[in-house]
Amino acid sequence: MASTTLFNFSVSSQVFLNPVDWKTVQQGMRDIFLDSGFDGCPHTVSFGANNGSLILYSGPDGRSAVVQSYAEGLITVNMQEPSKQEHLLMAEQLCTLEKRLATLLGCEKSKRFPRIQRSISPCDPYIPTVDNRLVEYDFDRIVFEEDSKYQNIKIQHSPQYGNMLILDNDPNLAESDIAYTKAITGNGRQDYRGKEILVLGGGDGGILHVLRQEDPAMIVMIEIDEVVINAATKHLRGICFDSMDELEGSNYKVIVEDCVPVLKQYATEGKQFDYVINDLTAIPITTEPQGDQWDFLRLILDLSMKVLKPTGRYFTQGNGANMRDALAMYEQQLGKLSFKVEFSKETVCVPSYMEMWVFYEVWKQQGQNGS
Fold first, then answer.
1. pLDDT tens digit string along 102-115?
2. Is 279 among the residues known to form the active site?
3. Distance between CA 205 and CA 247 in Å, rounded?
4. Which of 170, 279, 292, 295 is catalytic?
5. Are the C-beta atoms of 198 and 218 separated by less than 8 Å?
6. 8 A C-beta contact, residue 281 and residue 295
7. Rounded to whole angstroms, how far apart are CA atoms 76 and 107?
8. Distance CA 208, CA 60 (A)
9. What is the pTM of this model?
10. Each residue of 7-42: pLDDT tens digit?
11. Residue 120 has what pLDDT?
12. For the chain, what is the radius of gyration of the CA atoms?
C-alpha cells in the first residue's frame, strides 16, 4: 500500500539555462529532500538541454520522490510513501517541503495536490465522474458485496452519504440521494392518486417507497436482479425503508424478471399505464448513437411508449450535465420514435454523484393512441 503526493512548480525557464545555477538548485533540492527522510544520493537522468531532466530520490523506509523538469518552465514532484502512519509526512511537513522548494526555485506558482491512497483494499474510495474527473469518497467500510448473475453489487458506507449502492463500479444511489428519486418521479408536479404506474428497474426501492406514499391505484415494478432487491432491503433502509419487505401488497407488485418480455406482453395485451418510470440505466456515453446500449435504450423507449396512455408521462434519468453530446444524441432519438413525443428536462444536484444530473419527462403529442 502506498500514498502519492503530487507537487507542481511553475518556474522561469532561465533556471535550466545556466548549468552552474541548475547544479546549485539540484544541490539545494538534495538538502531539502535529505531533511524530509530521503537519502542524499539521488539518481539523475538528463534528457538533453531542450527536454529537461529527472531526479530520483529514495529513502530507507521505501519512500521515493521523482523530480522532473521541463524546459517550458515546469517542475513536477511525484512523491511515494508507504501508507503506514508512522512513515507518512504530516501535512505541516508537506507544506514546509513545498515552501522550501518554491523558495529555492524562485517559483512563480506552486500547487500541492491532496494525497492519493493506493492499495489493493476492496474498499476503493476513488470513483470517477461520468466525464472522468477523479472523486475521492469517504468510504470507511464495505457493507455488502456479491456477484449476481448480472453484475457486481457492492454497498459501501460513507459517513456523509450513508450506504451507497454501486453496480459494476458505477455509483447508483446513496441514502442521501432523495433528490434523485424526487426528480425521476416528477419533483412534485404529478398527482399519482388513483393512477397506474410502471417502474422499470429501481431495485434499490427508492422509487417504490416514494410512490407508495402517493396513494396510487397500482404500482408494477420490474427488476431483473433479485440480489439487488435483497441487498437493498437489508442494507439500504434509508432508501427503500420497508417498501420491499413484501414483494406484493394491495396496490403494488414487484416482478423479478427481465422487463423486455413483460413490456412486450403488456403491449400485445393492450395494457397501458398512466406513468412509466425508467430507472434501468443512464444514457450511453459514445461518439455515435450506435451499439448494444443504444439499441437497448431505443427498444425500451419504443415499448414504453406502447404501454403509455395517450395522456401519460414517461420519466427517466439522462446523464451528467457535462455530457452534452450524449444528451443531445438522446434527444435526437426521441424524435425518431414510432410515436411523436415532446419532452422537458431538468438538472438536479444529486449529493453523492458530486455532479449535476439531468432528468427527462416525455409525453406523447395529442391525438396518438398507444397501440
1. 999 999 899 999 99
2. yes
3. 11
4. 279
5. no
6. no
7. 12
8. 57
9. 0.90
10. 999 998 887 778 888 889 999 999 999 999 899 899
11. 82
12. 27
